[in-house]
Design brief:
The protein is globular and about 65 Å long. A hairpin with a 4-residue loop joins strand 22 (468-476) and strand 23 (481-489). The chain has 11 helices and 24 strands. It is an alpha+beta fold. It has 3 domains: 12-100 and 294-343, Phosphorylase Kinase, domain 1 (2-Layer Sandwich); 103-161 and 169-287, Transferase(Phosphotransferase) domain 1 (Transferase(Phosphotransferase), domain 1), CATH 1.10.510.10; 434-504, Immunoglobulin-like, CATH 2.60.40. 23% of the residues lie in helices and 24% in strands. Helix 4 (120-138) runs antiparallel to helix 9 and helix 6 (210-225) packs across helix 8 (259-268). The two termini are 35 Å apart. The chain has helices at 52-55, 58-73, 104-114, 120-138, 198-201, 210-225, 235-244, 259-268, 280-287, 295-305, 307-311; strands at residues 12-13, 16-24, 28-36, 42-50, 82-88, 91-97, 101-103, 150-151, 160-163, 168-170, 177-178, 184-185, 188-189, 342-343, 389-391, 394-395, 419-421, 435-443, 447-450, 453-457, 460-466, 468-476, 481-489, 494-500.
Amino acid sequence: MVKDGATTRGARLGDYELLARIAAGGMGEVFIARRRGPAGIEQRVALKTVLPHLADDPRWRDRFLEEMRFAAMLSHPHIVPVSELGWEDGRLFMAMALVEGVSLARLLRACRREGHLLSMPLVRLLATGLCEALQYAHQLRSPSGEAMGLVHRDVNPANILVSAQGAVLLGDFGIARPATSDTTHGGRAWGKYPYMPPEQLDGVRPLDARVDVFAASVTLYEALTGVSPFLRETDEATIQAIRGTELPDVTLLRPDVSPRVAEMLRRGAARERGLRLGSASDLLDGVLEGPVARPSELGALVERLCAAELAVFRRSEPVGGDVPVTRTLRPVSAGGTGGVTARWLGGARWPGVLGGLAVLAGGGWLFLPRGEAPAPVPVSSPETRAVQEAPRLAEVSPARPEESAPPEVAPRVPVAVKAVEARAAVPAPKAVEAIGFLTVDARPWAVVSVNGREVDRTPLARYPLPAGRHLVVFHNPTLGLTEQRTVQVESGKVATVRVDFAAP
């Protein structure tokens, strides 16, 4: 298998020439591909494939075909359009619109690295795209006019796509089903555990739109805070958190969120289905309190923070060998700030960015193991994120270039968000477990593991950990060097470690 961004010169699937692989998982791959027609007409698409050994497995083949059947029925500006299904040389493939952009999961990860949070207007823009797409799918009717009761079942940041133009699209209807169909495979619930309501975890039938309302509420909480509220260190602990706890009060991490919005998110993620908001429209009405960002502002943020991921879309022809991709960020100037120098990310009126319509899903389009969580920050319990500090207002200024490093393919757990002193009094939540923070860096760079679990690549800022001793391992695969440190993390404090692989 080739690296992400690397070319596959000469490879073809059906009428499509594969140009570059942009994402991969254990079950499939996504390529930028093109099909040439008469008179020099050229069409570029995102080509999603199932790996050959799985195409012969009826379980995965049927799931792929089911995704195509549902996707072919959907036509909405906030849903990724699908154009063709094919079979060539034992490989199933699906052609989709190519969206020049990244998944929301990748965008949030980039925000964490910069130590910032999305502005309220930007989150409202994301909520608009997500909720309108869900409401459309939930109300979909068959050609005969019969309500289908379609439920997505896998709403999470990896399946929400944001383009360089600021478009917000919902993708991966691979496990979408009518409400009355089976919710499990072999007794195991389909979906990503940190975003699944109790009834989906338990295999209850029928499911309804409130499954997606729960997942959308959790996703919007994560977009606001940078924290996945129910994600724990193990699947079992994550499931227990969903079954036994309520969504934390978002204002503890975001004091700028109004009590009404916090209440609507809480109701959207209610454990009891009967107490939950009944529709995606209800959720959207609850969070649309205030101005909504322009798409150009979201697009500018994608351009600024995800330049490395966007680079693969902007090569007109494939080149031989691996494609070098750096993490250098493109500076974006601010304009029209009216003298205000401190804003949440996305608050500035940045220049619009022109781009095509298509996607670097970063996992959303792939057949990944459904128990795996996409990559948000785990918390020890919904009440342990003691907020003595509130997130920092982002300065609107050119991005700081970073050292070049290999592109990231499938990050597991991104870093936490930087914080400074709260600007408003915030009541401290009940302490369940003492939490401290770990900040690490390495020269030139390293993959960081904490207590045997790979968490991210440096720099890693304010990663939350229980107070106590932790084993931190730094590994640079390019240099073939590894170092480890035992770090004492104290409650409410930041432990800082730096490793220099370049030192003599």
